[in-house]
Design a protein that fits this description.
Layout (H helix, E strand, L loop, with lengths): L11 E2 L7 E2 L29 H4 L22 H19 L7 H22 L8 H9 L6 H17 L36
Antiparallel strand pairs: 1-2
Helix pairs in contact: 2-3, 2-4, 3-4
Length: 201
């Protein structure tokens, strides 16, 4: 089966402890006589990315598997809810030149904007979202101006990994990643009066 020696790199699959399969037909090759040496060849892969303007309206369309990355499968529909919420916060900032505050008036504007965005995404971009979850949308808006230390550290590490991938060593994220820790929020009322210490936001 010496014909393999003259081929360009061939993709392998079904790798096991002592063997693997080639994605090629060997029916016209000579008979297999003895073992050989396999060289691992890294083949460059070109990945195209869409612009923010395109993907913010069609986040699923830029995903290779046709779905948003879900860090917690318990909340399978959460990424799209967060996407609409963040989209609504950006729309609010463009209209009022500020982030929404934790007031009933601002929350109502955010919810109405999110509903309009949701309808537009369903009708014009075939987004897989039926209705918005107002709790998720409001939480996204309430904390739009916050800088939470632990969350910032997590996202900083995440972004650093994506920057490393720009060198071509690993496959970058394609193209949206939504993450929240709303489960850590208190359920009842809390005192948010600044205490003039490092724990103030």
């Amino acid at each position: 089966m010496t014909e393999l020696n003259d081929l360009d790199p061939v993709e392998i699959y079904d790798c096991r402890a002592y063997d693997f399969k080639l994605k090629i037909s060997t029916s016209s090759f000579g008979a297999y006589t003895r073992q050989g040496i396999v060289e691992d060849k890294k083949v460059p892969k070109t990945i195209e990315f869409k612009s923010l303007e395109d993907t913010i309206k069609d986040p699923v369309g830029c995903s290779p598997d046709g779905m948003l990355l879900t860090p917690d499968l318990k909340y399978f529909d959460r990424p799209m809810q967060l996407h609409v919420g963040i989209f609504a916060v950006h729309a609010f900032r463009e209209e009022f030149d500020r982030n929404p505050e934790n007031t009933d008036a601002d929350m109502e504007k955010i919810v109405q904007s999110a509903k309009a965005i949701c309808e537009d995404l369903k009708e014009n971009h075939k987004a897989q979202i039926d209705t918005i979850d107002e709790v998720i949308i409001k939480n996204t808006a309430r904390f739009a101006s916050c800088s939470i230390t632990s969350m910032s550290a997590f996202l900083g590490g995440f972004i650093a990994q994506e920057i490393v991938k720009y060198t071509g060593k690993y496959t970058p994220l394609r193209q949206w990643f939504h993450y929240d820790t709303f489960e850590s929020l208190p359920e009842g009322e809390v005192d948010r009066t600044p205490r003039d210490c490092r724990y103030d936001d």
